[in-house]
Specification:
single chain; mainly beta; 14 strands; about 45% strand; disordered N terminus
């Protein structure tokens, strides 16, 4: 099995990854996980999103405040019985597809997040080309805090959580992320970008 390392986000608003032929440890903190890409029949890029102390600030405060306003809506979809089951809400001119993906544990072993995807189609029946909005919501363990990231396209939404890795598929390539130390104000994903 061929292994490739990817070095993660080192700057606040940049998304950089660098591939090497061997695993290497990020930073000097011994708690930071090694990032490994496995190359099987289909390529999988694995990355760890690391929250640094310098990411605290006004943007993060605003992100949590915005998430708090949406918390009540997302809480109703957290159910172990409905993991990976698409739930559809239909209104007069909108259709919303919600999927609860399950729990993603922070690698710091202190935090966990309920992960929910949301794809909303607006203008059904009244517009020739309806518009869509895509979101990923991360709710904390107690369901009293949330961060919601708006994504550009529905195919950029994650599909599943497996072995504590959140998986996306972009152009037939699997991308998996883990979280270390909390959630940043912007979600930066390898090969997808920052939101």
């Amino acid at each position: 099995m061929n292994k490739i390392s990817i070095v993660l986000i080192l700057a606040f608003l940049s998304c950089k990854s660098e591939q090497n032929n061997s695993s290497q440890e990020l930073g000097s903190d011994k708690n930071i996980a090694k990032i490994v890409t496995e190359n099987n029949d289909s390529k999988v890029v694995l990355d760890t999103l690391v929250f640094y102390k310098n990411m605290n600030g006004e943007l993060l405060t605003e992100k949590y405040a915005s998430g708090l306003s949406e918390l009540k809506f997302y809480k109703q979809f957290v159910s172990e019985n409905k993991i990976a089951e698409k739930q559809i809400l239909t209104e007069e001119h909108t259709k919303t597809e919600i999927t609860y993906l399950g729990i993603l544990n922070d690698l710091n072993n202190q935090n966990l997040y309920h992960v929910i995807t949301n794809f909303k189609i607006i203008g059904i029946g009244e517009m020739e080309s309806p518009r869509g909005e895509s979101y990923i919501a991360f709710l904390d363990e107690n369901l009293d805090k949330a961060i919601v990231y708006r994504m550009a396209l529905p195919d950029e939404l994650p599909e599943k959580i497996e072995d504590n890795v959140l998986y996306f598929t972009l152009e037939s390539e699997k991308i998996g992320i883990s979280i270390l130390g909390g959630l940043p104000p912007m979600l930066c994903l390898p090969k997808i970008g920052c939101y």
